[in-house]
Amino acid sequence: MHTTALVLFSGGQDSTTCLAHALSRYQRVETMGFDYGQRHRVELQARLKVLEEIRQQFPDWAHKLDQDHVLDLAVLGTVSETSLTRDTAFKMEASGLPNTFVPGRNLLFLTLAAAVAYRRGLEVIVTGVCETDFSGYPDCRDDTMKAMQLALSLGMDKRFLIETPLMWIDKADTWRMAQDLGGQALVDVIVEHTHTCYLGDREHRHAWGYGCGTCPACELRQRGYEKFTAA
Ligand code: ZN
Prior knowledge:
Blueprint: E1 4-8, H1 13-25, E2 28-35, H2 42-57, H3 59-62, E3 65-72, H4 74-79, H5 105-120, E4 124-126, H6 142-155, E5 161-163, H7 171-193, E6 205-206, E7 209-210, H8 216-230
Parallel strand pairs: 1-2, 1-4, 2-3, 4-5
Antiparallel strand pairs: 6-7
Bound molecules: zinc ion.
Zinc ion (ZN) binds at residues 197-199, 201, 211-212, 215, 217-218.
């Protein structure tokens, strides 16, 4: 029986839902984020605000919430040309992948997460990757996660479980999962305080939260929210 978890927590809708999932399930939960020079660095502030709101509004969860880790991954910006770290427009590449794809990003995130989980004695690594309606990032796929679980468990000689609660659901169901886990209060925290927009826009407030409203991340969040509230 697993009792401890490390959540890859970026401060967005998906990872906040994953955090709620972990807090409802495990006894000790830690969080981890990365600073890699992302254009939407505002998410680094958003994640602290979300943690604070969870501590204040969810007493049943607050006592389970342990350390938060933020790692400097500036090196990622030096090895990849991508619209997440450079000031270029979002577009699809000839590979069929959007130019927001940072090759190997999630592989690196998971490897570092496992290293921290090892040190902190955490058994489960929770990540909000999703194969259903995301941009087709190959490092978010279920097979990649299974391969990473095996590689990390073998390579560190410790049994890790990589848990992906959002893998097979769409964005509307992600909102629904948040509501099931934490009620309207959690939905409100997600709308008001999580950050998804690739451009880091915190000026424009929509029913579904803050963002430019036109980047791929905003469009996905908006569509999911509208489907969720229409149901
Ligand atoms: Zn946006």
